[in-house]
Amino acid sequence: MGLGPVMLGLDGFELTAEDAEILRHPLVGGVILFSRNYQSLEQVAALTASIHALRQPRLLVAVDHEGGRVQRFREGFTRLPAVRCLGEIYDQDRPRAKQLARVTGWLMAAELRAVGVDFSFAPVLDLDHGVSGVIGDRAFHRDPEIVADLAHAYVSGMQKGGMEGVGKHFPGHGGIAADSHLELPVDLRSYDDLIATDLLAFERMIHYGLAALMPAHVLYPQVDDRPAGFSTRWLKDILRRQLEFQGVIFSDDLDMAGATEAGSPSERARAALAAGCDMALACNDRRAAVAILDNLHHVADPVSQVRLIRLHGRGHITVERLRRGAAWQRASRWVRDYDACPLLEMDI
User: Fold this and answer.
1) Is 252 a residue of the active site?
2) H or E stretch at 212
3) For the stretch 73-99, what's the b/e string if a residue is b when 16 or more beta carbons lie within 10 angstroms of its beta carbon?
4) Which helix (H) or strand (E) holds 339?
5) Catalytic residue among 93, 143, 181, 339, which?
6) Which of the residues 19, 126, 224, 252 is marked catalytic?
7) Active-site annotation holds for 224
8) pTM for this structure?
9) How confident is the model at residue 257 (pLDDT cuts 50, 70, 90)?
10) Does 171 have pLDDT greater than 90?
11) CA-to-CA distance for 270 and 180, rounded, in angstroms?
12) Helix (H, G, I), strand (E, B) or coil at 219
């Protein structure tokens, strides 16, 4: 059995018999965890171990753990600053900002790998145009070259910590005020405007070998009449052929309001996969997830399987051993210091 094209959410702190039955479904390929699944370091490590034990190849386990407003696991984990802090430091001291980005990416990855999480949906590659409340300080910077420079350093740190990066939200969610969790945002900019700004950061990171991307539930009517996550034009023509992206494409959560234009849950999943996604996310509605599994007819793609397998986390040490190490102690101190006062000098 390979990895299926659907990633699901769970409701609790441990697997129920129903959870285990659903996760053995051949169309399932992964699990995304949320704050509702986190109680303690020991508990979440046991949860990920039970998920990984269900089948081979083991299911992917993911989480949104960007830092700032979006850090699902809090107690017991280092508080990660919003990445805008790194952009502010970059404006004053580029080498220091890049070093801190690498350290932060490593720390995030190492702490998650210590509890069995394969990857985080990070980093955000959107630009901070100053209009999007849902993006805001989740973006490194407004300048796409700076975003790419910092994201490259951040992902290099993640890789050293044992995980690949997932850039989001292609081709850019930062240019509109609407929140795709609540409605379908419409970005009226032309393709030429996008390729010169928002798309540039994604293009740079693809060149650096980024392993995975997530498209936005945003409509760009001057480019296509479907939102990016359901658009063959965006995913197959632009992302795959023009930008030559070879990694995994994840849909954003199909339970979001921005995805409802594609129809029922199973119709959304079919549309996302047909457009070019390798894996569709159904995070917060168990009935919708079951409907997808019951109605989705999907033939496994060997190339997609290879891409997905690449996202399995590498290396695994216990939390105790990680925290005894000089690397974790130094990294956590640096991150705490720049979180408290981002423009102070590091104690190196």
Assistant:
1) yes
2) strand 212-215
3) beeebbebbbbbbbbbbbeeeeebbbb
4) helix 326-340
5) 181
6) 252
7) no
8) 0.94
9) confident
10) yes
11) 20
12) strand
